[in-house]
Design goal:
The chain is of the alpha+beta class. The chain is built from three helices and four strands, in the order E-H-E-E-E-H-H. Strands 1-2-3-4 form a four-stranded mixed sheet.
Length: 78
């Protein structure tokens, strides 16, 4: 999650999230690297604490995608 998330200041997490960050995982670099998922439909912030919590939140709130469409996404260099 840390390698694919976007590191941001704590003030970004606590303010209104810009639309360009909807759907992203944000890593709070000023608060022990805590991760938050920003819901792409309403900008809601969800803390991704333990792996089980993160999986549950993303499963419940995620929009879903077909295998054909996910294979079109270029991951770049990891």
């Amino acid at each position: 999650m840390r390698s694919l998330g976007l590191g941001v200041k704590h003030s970004v997490i606590t303010s209104v999230i810009p639309i360009r960050l909807y759907g992203r995982i944000l890593i709070d670099v000023e608060d022990h690297g805590r991760a938050y998922w920003i819901n792409p439909t309403d900008g809601g912030k969800y803390y991704l604490g333990r792996p089980d919590d993160a999986f549950r939140i993303l499963k419940e709130k995620g929009l879903g995608i077909s295998n054909a469409n996910i294979n079109k996404i270029d991951l770049g260099e990891l």
